[in-house]
């Protein structure tokens, strides 16, 4: 029996779990990472790092590697690679395609959310003289550079490669922790507001709970609107989709 190649567009905890669960005889599982994190999680199977060179580059890769199943398990805000995946999956035939996207967080009693659609709206929503925990990827910092009356605490996992274009800031090099540790950070840094994206999942939700407990407003960036494609909410449902697809392929 020949191998069936599965490509996972990864970078999330769900993608790591999925790669591990799909390890089986006659399956070749490739996880593709953008390469933004210096020390990514240990991932089962093959790993490739870096971009594909746009939508056609991804389509060419799928053909070259004879990929039969493409799984988009990227971050909910990684719209470019997701758009590329939609294009590539419709260009290469036959190929099955599904997106794994964890559900968004829902506002709970006690949450003080200021919901915005864009980074510019988030920057505008910050009041003067605020002390803000900026919990965004490093590629989203520039929008806040004109806010010279705000002190930013910029959380990152890895140090930035270039100086940040912010007037008043300090770096917080750490990963999200427990509710208790997040609350301690918010208190120690005298945070008055949090700016973050509605990423969903458990990994970074502790700061939302801590903010609720402390009465701190959260400027919440809503998820971008996506095309209507087959989307599943968790690893288990994607495993079921993979099984159905493999059965249809006769593997």
Automatic annotation (TrEMBL):
UniProt KW Protein biosynthesis keyword: no
One GO molecular-function entry: precorrin-6A reductase activity
Biological or metabolic pathway of the protein: Cofactor biosynthesis; adenosylcobalamin biosynthesis
Keywords of this entry: Cobalamin biosynthesis, Oxidoreductase
Domain of life the protein comes from: Bacteria
Pfam families named among the record's database cross-references: CbiJ
E.C. number(s) listed in UniProt: 1.3.1.106, 1.3.1.54
UniProt-listed InterPro entries: Precorrin-6x_reduct
PANTHER family reported in the protein's UniProt record: COBALT-PRECORRIN-6A REDUCTASE
Official protein name in the record: Precorrin-6A/cobalt-precorrin-6A reductase
